[in-house]
Amino acid sequence: MTMQEAIALQPAWIGMWLRVLFLCAFILPATLVFWKPTRWAGLITPIASVASGLLTQKLYGALGYVKLLGLPHIVFWTPLIFFLIVVWRKPDLPMIPKVILSTVMGVILISLVFDYVDLVRYILGDRTPFEGTV
C-alpha cells in the first residue's frame, strides 16, 4: 500500500488537514520571494518542506504508517520556525508578508504539536501502525 492509499483510509479531516498543510508549508511560503526582507524565508521554507516530505516517504517505506512519520517535520521545521520568527520580527516588514508568515508559522506549529505528541507516544512504545493501514 502506498502512503497516499494509507492516508486515504484515514478519517476525512486528516486528508483535508494535509491539503492545508501542503498549501501553507509548500505553496504559500514561495510567495515570500516577492519581498526582499522575506526572500530567504520564501526559498528556505519550501525546501525544508520538500526535504521533510521526501524523508517522510522514506520512513513510510521502511516502517509503514506509524507515529514516527512526523519526525522529519520535527527535524526540519523546528529550526525553521525560529528562523521565521526572526524574519517576522523585522521592523521594516510589510503587512502582507507578515500575514503570510503568520499563516505559515501557525499551520506549521499546529502540525508540530501533532508530530511531537506522536513522537513521544512512539518513544513510549506506541508503535502500532495507524488503523486500517496494516
How is the topology of this model organized?
Layout: H1 3-8, H2 12-27, H3 39-63, H4 71-88, H5 95-123
Helix pairs in contact: 2-5, 3-4, 4-5
Question: How would you explain this protein's 3D organization?
Answer:
The protein is mostly helical and 134 residues long. Helices cover 70% and strands 0% of the residues. The protein has helices at residues 3-8, 12-27, 39-63, 71-88, 95-123. Helix 3 (39-63) packs antiparallel against helix 4. It is elongated and about 50 Å long. It starts with a helix and ends in an 11-residue tail after the last helix.
What's this model, at a glance?
This protein has 134 residues and is mainly α.
Order of helices and strands: HHHHH
Estimate the strand proportion.
under 5%
How many beta-strand runs? Answer: 0
Net shape:
elongated
Count of helices? 5
Low-pLDDT segments, ≥5 res: none
Mean pLDDT score: 93
Keywords:
mainly alpha, 70% helix
